[in-house]
Amino acid sequence: MNRALPKSCLIHRSSAEKTGLYAFALKFICFSAVLCTFFEQYCSFIPGITLGELILIIASLLRIVTLRNKIQFKSTSPLIAYYFFGLLMTCISVLISQVNFTLVPEWEFASRLLRYLAIVLFFVLACDRIDKGFVLRLYRLLCIIVSIYILLQSLVYLLFNVYLPVKVLPFFEFSRAVNTKELLDLANNYYYRGCGPFAEPGYAAQFLLPGLAFSLYGWLKKDRSDLFAVILISFSVIVTTSVQGIVIGLLTVLVFTFADPRRRRMEKGKMKNWLLTLASISALAAVLYLKGQLDFPLERISGITLAEGDSTSLRLYRGFALWLKLPLLYKLIGVGFGNIANFIDTFNIRTAYDSYLTSVTATEYVNGISGVLICSGLLSVPFIVTWFVRLYKGSAVVGRIILFQLFLVLSSGSGVFTLSSLFFVFLLLTSVDSAGDKTTGGPTRPETAVPNQLIGEII
Questions:
Q1: Total structural domains in the chain?
Q2: Which end of the chain is more exposed for a tag (fewer CB within 10 A), N or C?
Q3: Model pTM greater than 0.90?
Q4: How confident is the model at residue 190 (pLDDT cuts 50, 70, 90)?
C-alpha cells in the first residue's frame, strides 16, 4: 500500500526499487556521504584523486545506473545556479585579468573546476533520496567509535607516552605527511592533541559536531536526547583542543540549553540528568584547563582581536582583507574558482593577515564565506544566501543547528565546494522526513526515503 503523500512529494516506485542493486546503491551513496571526510585523507591509486573522491565517483555511477526516474535538477537550483554563474564569472575574469598560471598551472586550474562540478553532481545524486534510518544509525555508530578512539588515544598517551595510530587503513597512503612519531614529538615538546583516526584534530572535531547536535535533539526518536553520546562526543571534542570544535560545540550546547523552549518543559528527572551531563563536561574542561591543555585554544581565541600574524586572524580576516584590495570589477565578478593564488601572484596583493609561509596552499588560504566573494564576486552572493535561507526554512531544529555549525565552519576555514560542506548539508537533510514534515527523528525505509521533489522545496 502506498503511503499518502502531498502531490509534490509523490514517489513513483519502479521495479528497480525492489531489487537488491537499488537498495545497495542507495545505501552505498549514503555511506559514501557520511564517510567522505574520513576517506578524503587517503590517496587512491589514481593520481590527483583522493580515496574519498574515488568512492564518491563510484557511488554516483552506481546510483545513475540504478535510476529509473528522472532526477529533478531544478530541485537543487540554487547550488547548481551558483556553480554555473561562478563558472561564467571565472571565464570572464580569467580572460580579462590575463593572470600568470605559475603557482597553479592550467591543467590543475581546469581540474579544480571539474572537481567542483563533481561535488555538485554528487550532491544532486546523493540527495535524490536519503535512507534516513540507515544514515543516522551508521553516523551514530561512527561518532561513538571515533569518540572512544580519541579518548583511548589520549589515555594511552598519558599512561604510556605512546601515540596510537592515526592512519588506520593499511593499504592506502595518507594524502598528508602525518605519522605517529611526529605527533608524539609534538605532544612531548609542546602539548597533546587528540586526533583519533583523522590527520588533524580539527577534522575529528568537524566530524563529531553534527553528532553532538543529533545527540542533543534526538537521533531516530524525536525530542529524545542521547546523554551518553552527548558526554562522549563533548569529551572527545574538548580533548582535540580544536578551537573551531570547542567554540562551535559550546555554542551548540548553549543554544540547546537556553534557546530551546523544550528545556522549559523538561521533566524534573530529565532536568537532573541534563544538569549532571553539563557538570561532567564542565569538570573535564576544568581539569584540562588546570593542566594547561586548554592554554593553546584560549590563546587562539584571544587572537581573534589581533591585527596580524596570528593563525586565528588569518582564518577569519585574511579573505575579506583580500577582497577589499581587489579592483572594483573583480569585487563584483571575482577572480575565478581555484584562481586565488595566481591572481594574488600576478597583481602582487598583500594583506596584514598573510601567512609567513609561501606555499600555494598558504597563498590562497581564505575561509569559505570570503572565498565566495573572492572567487565568484559580490554578484554571486544572492545564490548562496537563497540556498541557506531555503535550507533553514525547510529544516527541523536539529537541521538548523547543523546549518549554523556549517556557517561557522565556513567562516573559519572550509569552502563551499568541499567534501566537508557536503558532509554537513547531507546530514542536515536527514532532519526532513519523507512526508515533508520537519522532524528530528523517525526511521525511513529506502522506498520512502526523502524524494528529490521534496529537496526542491528545501533548497
A1: 1
A2: N
A3: no
A4: confident
CA dist 380 and 428 (Å) reads 23
397-424: per-residue pLDDT in tens? Answer: 899 999 999 999 999 888 889 999 989 9
Provide CB contacts within 8 A for 312, sequence distance 6+: 243, 300, 301, 303, 304, 306
Mean pLDDT check: name the lowest of 146-150, 187-191, 308-312: 308-312
With b for 16 or more beta-carbon neighbours within 10 A and e for fewer, the 20-57 pattern comes to eebbebbbbbbbbbbbbbbbbbbbbeeeebbbbbbbbb
pLDDT in tens, 204-247: 999 999 999 999 988 877 668 888 999 999 999 999 988 899 99
Nearest to 150 by CA among 102, 213, 193, 88: 193
Q: Which domain holds residue 292?
A: 135-301
Q: Is residue 243 part of a domain?
A: yes
* Number of Cβ atoms within 10 Å of the Cβ of 120: 19
Instruction: Give the closest residue to 211 by CA, choosing from 190, 231, 181.
Output: 231
Residue type, 18: K
Helix, strand or coil, per DSSP, at residue 178: coil
User: Which three three-digit cell numbers place residue 352?
Assistant: 596584514
pLDDT tens-place string over residues 284-304: 878 777 777 676 667 666 656
The amino acid sitting at 63 is: R
In a domain, 421, yes or no: no
262-291: burial string, b at 16+ Cβ within 10 Å, e else? eeeeeeeeeeeebeebeeebeeebeebeee
Which residues lie closer than 8 Å to 251 by C-beta, 6 or more apart?
404, 408
Residue 46 lies in a domain: no
Look at residues 63, 33, 9, 24 and name the one whose alpha carbon lies nearest to residue 123.
Answer: 33
Contact (Cβ atoms closer than 8 angstroms) between residue 441 and residue 220: yes
Q: Judge whether 145 lies within some domain.
A: yes
Give dist(CA 152, CA 164) in Å, integer.
8
Contact between 22 and 150 (Cβ < 8 Å): no
Residue pair 77/123 in contact by the 8 Å Cβ criterion: no
Mean pLDDT score of the chain = 82
**Percent of the chain at pLDDT exceeding 90:** 43
